[in-house]
Design goal:
Blueprint: H1 2-45, H2 48-55, E1 57-58, E2 69-71, E3 78-80, E4 83-93, E5 96-106, E6 112-120, E7 126-134, E8 137-140, E9 142-145, H3 146-158, E10 161-170, E11 173-181, E12 186-196, E13 198-200, E14 203-208, E15 221-222, E16 226-227, E17 230-231, E18 236-237, E19 250-251, E20 261-269, E21 274-279, E22 284-288, E23 293-298, E24 303-304, E25 309-315, E26 323-330, E27 333-340, E28 354-362, H4 370-384, E29 391-397, E30 401-403, E31 409-410, H5 413-424, H6 434-443, E32 452-460, H7 467-477, E33 482-488, H8 494-503, E34 508-511, H9 517-529, E35 533-541, E36 547-549, E37 562-568, E38 576-583, E39 586-593, E40 598-599, H10 603-617, H11 625-638, E41 646-655, E42 663-667, E43 670-671, H12 678-682, H13 706-715, H14 720-725, H15 732-742, H16 754-792
Parallel strand pairs: 4-20, 6-42, 19-43, 26-40, 28-29, 28-32, 32-33, 33-34
Antiparallel strand pairs: 1-3, 2-3, 4-5, 5-12, 6-11, 7-8, 7-12, 9-41, 10-11, 10-41, 13-14, 14-25, 15-18, 16-17, 20-23, 20-24, 21-25, 22-23, 26-27, 27-37, 29-30, 29-31, 35-38, 36-37, 38-39
Helix pairs in contact: 1-16, 4-5, 4-9, 6-7, 7-8, 10-11, 13-15
Length: 795
């Protein structure tokens, strides 16, 4: 009986051991299967494209020079943004400047990239050439209708060919896209344009803008649509044309070094003996070559692109030219450029007209720092110069508006002191809702008094994206008022300021530093106090000429020249150019013999640029937008010019990017303009945007969290490939958000992949199960051996 019990107990123990071994073997097999599954999945994920993407990423310690890094989806890895270096060569010959802008796009990463650079040019520039350099070869850009140029570019990009596309987003904002820049490669793109030198009084000036300031972009408007049977559906109308195109990542200067270095030289051949030659905002070296020529270069090899370059010069005493006539013959046609400065002979017999001046001052966030100080000083000085018989008002605006006197009041000493004290207490903050302030200045100041002259003086940096909306307001509601603009700061929107003054029959004055306040405002006072030259017209005697620009001729203020271009149908025309006008009741007339015109270059391009400007300025009169676009396209294509409806595109015929390599895309970051306050523009502790969340883009997403912003930026990503590499695409909104977050949360370089951690954990679990199972079997066998031995010994 005892023997049977012993056998039964042995069988039970054997079954238990078998179950334990089976459990151990099953657990072992499951762990092995899990490890193999994870390993195979990881290997499957490492396709050639994924490998190429990982190769395109960098760790912070891998970067040896200053770079902007965008966090990637791979923990611890970043995408390095393309870099840009710009060289500018300006040749001034008399009244014309020819400019070559050379942009070097460098790809410091290990992947293939597409770079997009948003950059400014003068608003009167005639952009006519694009060249792309690849090694020793230069590829000339071809002018095409805008949509056709875009299609050519996209096809070349998809085929792996190096290609460049130059588009106009505003007359003073352009984008240059360069695709298929290889790892460690540099592509050189050269842009050429012509412009007319600006003259005011006895001073000539040239301005080269270096940075596009963040724009305030108002929310799209929804208007009620009325049908015959009542109200219908409303359709949104965006007041900001190409909203996403004019935005770019903006770096916080407190957290990032200045980027996008610019070198610049000017070869000045004035055509008359020179007096003072000065750079307003940059230190320069000036060398003399005779009495009519100077060579100007930056004292530093390069400067960051964060403020405009301005060069001014004057004639030697007694050598100031009063008129000029230049010509260029192209394809059997003659193009003329003429300028003449009317004599400043104030009419002393007629008492000065009483003035009604509405001062409008911008105190939004972009005006913080030196800009608001310049605006306060300028406005206080202007108010102090008012006569007791004048009437005036002060309107200030940010994202709200205040009409200080609630209408025009007499310019008594008491009212002037109140207004000056109010102006000196203004601070800069908030968005730039300019339209309500402009409407108040033009619509709500009451009728113009008999014999009075209504003037609206606008002091702003013009950092807005809804220029067309404001131009329409000036055109519709200006009445008899004249709109005079004062551009404030290191990077004003000169396109808006100049065009608003032209439409408003006023004048534009730029103030870039507090040192210029007294002199530039003094010039403005002289223009305000002296009657403008009106009824200006140009005709040709002895030859037919219909294409004279600008048309109509704008009014002029004291010291401003008449500048016109014309297209004549003959290669050797004979006859005279006659320009007439009047100052008050005094008539004025000048005649110039066409045969005496001096040879010039680039005049045909300048005529075409101004012809296009005339079309754009009178767009509101056209009922058919398609016909307007066709007229602009015809002129632009004939003269090889970039415009709103035409673009330059260059394509290398040889593919360079392998078909299995992905292409990343990123907008190149911009500096914040010199003197601007990052927190005032983008909002304290808020996600900053390229167009500005607080200052730059009044959209419903203002209060959105990081997840919503990241989702929005991925929708705006230039290509789907880069969205797979980056945690957030480097758009205007995401890049500056990333830059701010990166300053406080840095992923460690030693961060590892999650699947690797899982494999390691499963391996350790497998070893633990194997050891536990083996120990259980070993314990039972030892106990059995001990029990059998004890029985044998009779214990």
């Amino acid at each position: 009986m005892f023997l049977e019990d012993e056998f039964a107990i042995g069988r039970i123990r054997a079954r238990r051991i078998s179950v334990s071994v089976l459990v151990a073997v099953t657990a072992f097999a499951a762990c092995i299967a899990a490890i193999l599954g994870l390993a195979s999945a990881a290997r499957a994920a490492e396709t050639p494209q994924a490998s190429a993407q990982l190769a395109a990423l960098v760790r912070p310690n891998d970067v040896n020079s200053g770079s902007l890094l965008f966090p990637s989806k791979e923990p611890g890895f970043y995408v390095e943004a393309p870099r840009l270096k710009t060289d500018v060569a300006i040749d001034v010959s008399g009244p014309i400047a020819g400019v070559k802008v050379t942009q070097r796009f460098q790809n410091p990463s290990q992947g293939w990239v597409e770079g997009t650079y948003v950059f400014p040019l003068p608003d009167n520039s005639a952009v006519d050439a694009l060249k792309m350099q690849i090694g020793e070869r230069f590829i000339e850009g071809q002018i095409k209708p805008r949509q056709e140029a875009r299609e050519i570019y996209e096809q070349a990009k998809a085929e792996g060919k190096k290609t460049a596309l130059l588009e106009q987003q505003r007359p003073n904002i352009f984008t240059n896209q360069v695709a298929n820049i290889g790892p460690g490669e540099t592509i050189v793109v050269q842009i050429e344009y012509q412009q007319i030198i600006h003259q005011s009084g006895d001073e000539f000036s040239l301005r080269f803008p270096m940075v596009v300031a963040p724009r305030y972009n108002p929310t799209p408007i929804v208007q009620t649509v009325e049908f015959n049977n009542g109200a219908g559906f409303a359709t949104p109308r965006d007041p900001v044309e190409n909203r996403d195109k004019i935005e770019a990542p903006v770096l916080d200067p407190r957290e990032n070094a200045r980027i996008n270095p610019v070198s610049l030289t000017v070869d000045l051949k004035a055509g008359f003996p020179l007096g003072d030659v000065k750079s307003s905002f940059h230190a320069v070296d000036i060398s003399q070559d005779g009495d009519q020529a100077r060579t100007i270069s930056l004292k530093a090899d390069a400067v960051p692109a964060d403020k405009d370059f301005e060069l001014t010069w004057k004639a030697a005493p007694g050598k100031m030219p009063s008129a000029g006539l230049f010509r260029e013959v192209i394809d059997g046609k003659t193009y003329l450029l003429a300028f003449v400065t009317p004599p400043t002979t104030p009419d002393t017999a007629t008492p000065p007209a009483k003035r009604e001046v509405v001062f409008v001052i911008d105190n939004s966030g972009s005006m913080s720092g030196p800009s608001i100080e310049q605006a306060r000083q300028s406005l206080a000085l202007a108010i102090s110069k008012l006569n007791p018989d004048d009437r005036f008002n002060v309107i200030r605006f940010d994202d709200t508006m205040t009409d200080y006197f609630k209408g025009l009041v007499a310019a008594t000493p008491d009212n002037r002191e109140k207004a000056i004290a109010y102006v000196r207490g203004l601070t800069a903050d908030g968005g730039t809702e300019m339209l309500p302030a402009l409407q108040a200045a033009l619509r709500n100041q009451g009728p113009v008094a008999t014999g009075a002259l209504r003037q609206v003086v606008f002091l702003t940096d013009g950092a807005i994206g809804n220029e067309r909306q404001l131009f329409q307001e000036i055109t519709t509601n200006r009445g008899d008022a004249r709109v005079l603009t004062v551009g404030i700061g290191s990077a004003p929107n000169t396109y808006f300021m100049t065009k608003a003054a032209e439409i408003g029959r006023g004048t534009f004055t730029a103030i870039g530093s507090t040192d210029q306040v007294a002199s530039r405002m003094g010039e403005l006072f002289a223009k305000l106090q002296n009657p403008a030259m009106t009824d200006i017209a140009a005709t040709f005697e002895g030859i037919e000429a219909e294409n004279i620009t600008p048309n109509p001729m704008p009014d002029l203020y004291s010291g401003e020249p008449v500048v016109l271009t014309a297209e004549l149908p003959e290669a050797k025309p004979a006859g005279k150019l006659q320009i007439i006008g009047k100052t008050g009741d005094q008539p004025w007339r000048v005649e110039m013999d066409i045969a005496n015109a001096a040879d010039g270059s680039g005049i045909s391009k300048l005529w075409a640029r101004r012809k296009i400007d005339d079309f754009e300025a009178r767009a509101y009169e056209r009922q058919d937008p398609a016909a307007l676009d066709k007229d602009i396209e015809t002129v632009a294509l004939a003269h090889h010019l970039v415009s709103r409806v035409t673009s330059l595109v260059a394509v290398d015929v040889t593919p360079s990017r392998p078909a299995d390599q992905p292409l990343g895309s990123a907008k190149l970051p911009l500096n914040l303009p010199d003197g601007w306050d990052f927190d005032k523009v983008f909002g304290e502790n808020a996600a900053p945007l390229g167009g500005a969340e607080r200052h730059g883009s009044a959209t419903p997403a203002e209060n959105a969290g990081p997840e919503q912003a990241a989702a929005e930026t991925q929708d705006l990503a230039a290509s789907p490939e880069i969205a797979n590499m980056m945690a957030a695409a480097p758009t205007a909104k995401a890049a500056t958000m990333i830059a701010q977050k990166s300053s406080t949360v840095n992923l460690p370089q030693t961060a590892t992949r999650a699947d690797e951690q899982i494999i390691r954990g499963l391996t350790m679990l497998l070893l633990a199960l194997t050891a536990a199972s083996g120990l259980a079997v070993w314990r039972r066998r030892v106990k059995r051996i001990i029990a059998v031995g004890a029985k044998r010994n009779g214990l």
